[in-house]
Amino acid sequence: MSTPYAKLPGWVEYGLVPLINLAVAFIVAGLVVLLVGENPFEAAYHLINGAFGRGEYIGFTLYYATTFIFTGLAVAVAFHCGLFNIGGEGQAYVGGIGVALACLWLDQTMPWYVVFPIAIVGSAFFGALWAFLPGWLQAKRGSHIVITTIMFNFIASSLMVYLLTRVLKPLGSMAPQTRTFAEGGQLPKLDWLLSIFGLNIGTAPFNISFLLALVAAFAVWVLIWRTKLGYEMRTMGHSPSAARYAGIRESRITVIAMMISGGLAGMMALNPIMGEQFRMQLDFVQGAGFVGIAVALMGRSHPGGIIPAAILFGVLYQGGAEIAFEMPSISRDMIVIIQGLVILFAGALENMFRPAITRVFAMRGQRAAAVVQTKGA
Amino acid sequence: MDFFHVLVVLLESTIRVSVPLVFAALAGLFTERAGVFDIGLEGKMLGAAFAAGAAAAVTQSVWIGLIAAILISVLLSLVHGYASITQRGNQIVSGVAINFIVAGSTVILGEAWFRQGGRTPALAEGARFQIVNFPGADAAREVPILGPIYADLLSGHFLLTYLAFAMVPISWWILYRMRFGLRLRAVGENPGAVDTAGISVIWLRYRAVICCGILCGFAGAYLSLAMTAGFVKGMTAGKGYIALAALIFAKWRPKNVMLACLLFGFLDALAIRLQGTPLPLVGQVPVQLMQALPYILTVILLAGFIGKAIPPKAGGVPYVKER
């Protein structure tokens, strides 16, 4: 896409512009709160208090953030390759099969540290599998990845309803879910990490998959900016024709990028399944795949931006529950609005304020140049 | 029940569930033919359904409900247009954003205004669309074969149903026989050429987006003013995406759009009908498979195994005038 905008300093590009976009999204969300007849500042207070007020709340915030780091990274990896993977939702859902199978198979005989690596591989495998077909169809048959991944979300949803109501459900049970896992299928909490800061985790399901998410974020950084594959992916994302002339095998890179993306989305399933519910339930993804889009856009597809963006959405999810509790007329659907506004302002309208910001910095630049000139003369 | 009777009932419900799909898919046809991809059909339909339900409940007038639906839907279209035409933002991202904003705000506003758990109040007779009965429909029902076809398939639908199917040839006429339509299609294939001819690409695309908004407004109004008496949260339930699938399945052509919508509507009606009943030869088909079938068919089509779906060439690409 042609961007006729002047280059801005790094801190403006990666700090100020996203912050302004985010601020506008929150101002509009505040207007919605006003429209409902509530005080937006009170809502903001409950949001912050609900997210950080106690060790337990922080635990929940970071638990949600864990999920969003995975899905955000998934969207970001595909973005770098010029692919828009809207299918994180379905990939995470199907990734759950890998986690559930590992747990159902080994939870009664093995400790968690044996089950966990197998579940990681399983979730990544199933997630990647669900992303493989759209990737392959894009690469070989030219089917639009956005449309195919949307379709695969719906297909995944039907498939999982089928599996959970017919196959994975224990005999004699009515609820569409697997049996509850024994100890081997339950991840240890990170209570020690919070207690370093003198916080009590309480009932929060903040678990070891958070550390895995951080490792994944680092791995994505290495992949994108420090490996040949990542370089090829970025080349393709910037200019497919340049990639073609450079002899990069487009279809191979497309499929690989999609599978990495799907694998990351699939690993998201570890957090709710092994970390919180200890069973696989219907709809356990709960829109996290879509939150990943907002997180990746906010974080500018860089792991260093994705982690804070994921924590921000963790705050919204956990604090939003507190708002819903304290102010009954604002239900948790408020988060969905904010999420949409963030996607709109940080994504589709990301350049709305750029001309003004560029002008401000151009003026400052001119003034500085003028100062240098007068000194020189 | 004999086979013929079952078939008539099935086809009748096919028509009923296809109407919003036809409206929404035609809406998508207008924007996508003009080179603006629209994932936000779902959101616009939902927003329109809510506006219709809310306005009709407050004013007790079905027409004000319909107008409110169209207004909100056009407004959302303009947001999409502003982001993707003027700001040259990513069209997919914008569509996704609109879907989320609407999904959240319909619930929040509905709860704040009506306090019925995200619903709007149930509409009385005057505040919703009534079934149109053709003259002599009841008398004709006794006539074998032709009677039920006349009485149940042709007669006995809502005004909007007839409008939806009338919109198919009308859309065709607009797109293929009017100057506006020719230009609209040209702007989706080669905006540079249209610009060279001295026609504003921006204004043309905005008009296409507005057409899309109007049609999505009808789709939403049908859901909350005709199909059910009032708005229920999340009532579009993926219909916007099915419409999108139907649009691609139809290869962006009006007549095919109608057929694709009827096919997907038929699958939907069949899935409800077949729940729990085994079929000859194949045994019991899981209802989930039937639900997923439209999506699976679309993927197979996109893969190029049933013909080839070639989207408008300039679809998804913002137009930059310079050079």
Describe the SSE topology:
The complex is a heterodimer of chains A (377) and B (323).
Chain A: H1 10-36, H2 40-52, H3 55-80, H4 88-106, H5 112-141, H6 145-167, H7 191-196, H8 209-226, H9 228-238, H10 240-245, H11 250-267, H12 270-277, H13 288-298, H14 303-326, H15 333-348, H16 354-376
Helix pairs in contact in A: 1-15, 2-3, 2-14, 3-8, 3-11, 3-13, 3-14, 4-5, 4-6, 4-11, 4-13, 5-6, 5-11, 8-9, 8-14, 9-11, 13-14, 13-15
Chain B: H1 3-33, H2 41-59, H3 62-86, H4 91-114, E1 131-132, H5 137-140, H6 146-154, E2 157-158, H7 159-177, H8 179-189, H9 191-196, H10 201-227, H11 239-249, H12 254-274, H13 287-302
Antiparallel strand pairs in B: 1-2
Helix pairs in contact in B: 1-6, 1-7, 1-10, 1-11, 1-12, 2-3, 2-4, 2-10, 2-11, 3-4, 3-10, 7-8, 7-12, 8-10, 11-12, 11-13, 12-13
Structure described in brief:
The complex is a heterodimer of chains A (about 375) and B (about 325). Chain A is an all-alpha fold.
Rg of chain A, alpha carbons: 22 Å
How much strand content do the residues of chain B show? under 5%
Provide the residue-averaged pLDDT of chain B.
85
Number of helices of chain A: 16
Tell me what the CATH architecture of chain B is.
Orthogonal Bundle
What value does the Rg of chain B take, in angstroms?
20 Å
- CATH fold-type name of chain B: ABC transporter involved in vitamin B12 uptake, BtuC
Task: Describe this structure as you would to a colleague.
The complex is a heterodimer of chains A (377) and B (323). With 377 residues, chain A is an all-alpha fold. Helices cover 74% and strands 0% of the residues of chain A. Chain A contains 16 helices and no strands. The model of chain A has no long low-confidence stretch (mean pLDDT 88). With 323 residues, chain B is mostly helical. Chain B has one domain (3-305): ABC transporter involved in vitamin B12 uptake, BtuC (Orthogonal Bundle), CATH 1.10.3470. Helix content of chain B is 69%, strand content 1%. Chain B contains 13 helices and two strands; from the N terminus they run ααααβααβααααααα. Chain B has a two-stranded antiparallel sheet. Chain B is globular. Chain B starts with a helix and ends in a 21-residue tail after the last helix. Classes of the chains: A mainly alpha (377), B mainly alpha (323).
